[in-house]
Amino acid sequence: MNSGSMDSNSNNSNVVLGQYLQQSRFARLIPFDSFANMFPAGTSTDLIKSIYNQLILQEERKLADIQRNIDNKFNEALQELYDKPESIPTIESSKVDILTQCLSDLSHQLEYEVAKQKDEVDEELSILDAKLETLAKIDIPNYHDQEIRDAERKCDKLTKIINQI
To answer: pLDDT tens-digit profile of 43-95?
Structure first.
């Protein structure tokens, strides 16, 4: 097998996939400032940033899984073509059809995964909006303000410790 060709083809597929997925990235769809504006005034910026970063990290993990799956299927299809080059003097149209069908199926799978991920992000944001609405409606007496600020500071400290890990 010609691994240089496999690497080149894999890199090409990575570029195409990367460009396709870049359109629907969470950070691109919802900039941090817009995300932060969804929280009630006085919410710790560190806490908001931590939540935002966790959502991005979850997205990156899912995209890495999708990328691995696509690479594996793509490389399997290419491997079929490379396995017996001596016995196949020219590429049979059936092999090209198989590869084309495989790539088409992967394209549909990718579209489905991106749409599913967008739906999941929308659902999470909807849940977050509902929680923020509820928080905004809560009337907290002034004498509890100091306790809340103390709790926020403690949460900020915990967030900083967790981020350092």
So the answer is: 899 999 999 999 989 988 888 888 888 888 888 877 877 776 655 556 667 87
What's the domain range around 33?
A: 3-164
Structural domains in the chain (count): 1
Among 152, 162, 157, residue whose Cα is nearest residue 39: 152
Task: Answer whether 0.90 is exceeded by the pTM.
Answer: no
Bin 42: left if φ > 0, else alpha if -120 < ψ < 50, else beta: left
Token match 């990156």: residue? 60
Contact 13, 71 (CB under 8 A): yes
| The pLDDT value given to residue 48 | 92
SS (H, E, C) 96-151: HHHHHHHHHHHHHHHHHHHHHHHHHHHHHHHHHHHHHHHHHHCCCCHHHHHHHHHH
